[in-house]
Design goal:
Number of domains: 2
CATH class of the largest domain: Alpha Beta
Helix content: 40-55%
Number of helices: 11
Order of helices and strands: HEEHHHHEEEHHEHHEEHEEEHE
Structural class: alpha+beta
Largest sheet: 5 strands, antiparallel
CATH architecture of the largest domain: 2-Layer Sandwich
Strand content: 15-25%
Shape: elongated
Length: 317
């Protein structure tokens, strides 16, 4: 039996468009849909007969018409392919993830290529959109980025207290010093040390000492601002940078921390343990040659507080 050649050609084209694992959409200059393959039907539940010769934006109002028209313009005017990657825009068509059970994605991530389709006259009357499902690749990349962010945060945080560790705090301190040196800002530095922590460790054990350290860190977090940078500088020593804050305003903050600690009781192994802290404060001075001089001034104030009997706040103007 002789088969009509045009019918045979239509059959293999339909078979081809239905078997490939990418979306194929052909649009004319008015963005009316000319071709809508099986992939697009499967993920949108829109059969070709419903959308053919209909405007794309009527069916997908979530697509920014102005943005997409501008994006596709080079394909029509310059006969140049256009690429849209998921990092720029996660998807063009809001399709559900193709593997909802095994995937964590709430939608399909897509890479899009817009190809110009020239007519016999050489004019581009239509463009072809090729939609690639790149969900697994995107999730893998996002997962790696998330892991890197977690690792970076872990490298900056003291494991016991959740405050900045010494290395990261010192980096922030040097940056603040340079900023203050450049702008003449009235920033301040607080150094805090737990009184007689060695005796606590000897009497109750290091876990008790760790609980005291964590308690002090919690008090510091509650009494400082989000813009302040608090870190665990040593075993029982803490440092707090207060940007854009003159020392006259810092003494109140330091006294508040000291009083809260003085009233606090740590319970460990059914034992109630009280403790105190000594605090030194130094404001930024333009005469400091480097950040170390500023740190030394605050450290000197701290040891003056200890020499005066501990549980004291000493400020160096």
């Amino acid at each position: 039996m002789k088969v009509d050649s045009s019918l045979a050609e239509m059959h293999w084209k339909h078979d081809l468009l239905g078997s490939i694992e990418v979306g194929i959409v052909v649009l004319d200059k008015e963005f009316n849909v000319q071709v809508w393959n099986q992939f697009m039907e499967n993920h949108s539940s829109i059969v070709p007969g419903m959308i053919q010769n209909k405007n794309l934006f009527e069916f997908f109002p979530e697509i920014d018409e102005q943005w997409f028209t501008r994006k596709a313009a080079p394909a029509f005017s310059l006969k140049s392919p256009v690429f849209i990657i998921w990092e720029q825009r996660p998807y063009l068509f809001h399709f559900n993830c193709s593997r909802p059970i095994t995937s964590q994605a709430e939608h399909m991530f897509q890479n899009i290529t817009i190809f110009p389709l020239a007519s016999l006259t050489g004019q581009v009357e239509r463009v072809c959109l090729v939609i690639y499902d790149v969900t697994e690749e995107a999730l893998s990349r996002l997962g790696m980025q998330s892991l890197n962010r977690q690792l970076e945060k872990m490298s900056q945080v003291d494991g016991l207290t959740g405050l900045c560790n010494r290395h990261f705090w010192e980096e922030q301190f040097v940056m603040e010093y340079k900023r203050d040196k450049r702008n003449g800002n009235p920033s301040s530095l607080i150094m805090v040390d737990i009184d007689f922590l060695k005796e606590v460790n000897d009497m109750y054990g290091h876990p008790a000492g760790d609980k005291i350290i964590k308690t002090l860190a919690s008090i510091i977090k509650k009494t400082t601002r989000e813009t302040d940078i608090a870190g665990r500088y040593g075993g029982e020593e803490f440092a707090i940078i207060l940007p854009d804050t003159p020392v006259a305003n810092v003494e109140f903050v330091a006294e508040r921390i000291r009083r809260l600690v003085e009233k606090c009781t740590v319970v460990y192994d059914e034992k109630h343990i009280s403790f105190t802290i000594s605090i030194g404060i130094a404001g930024f001075k333009d005469t400091y040659k480097d950040s170390t001089q500023w740190l030394d001034s605050a450290d000197k104030a701290l040891y003056e507080a200890k020499d005066m009997g501990r549980n004291q706040v000493v400020l160096i103007e």
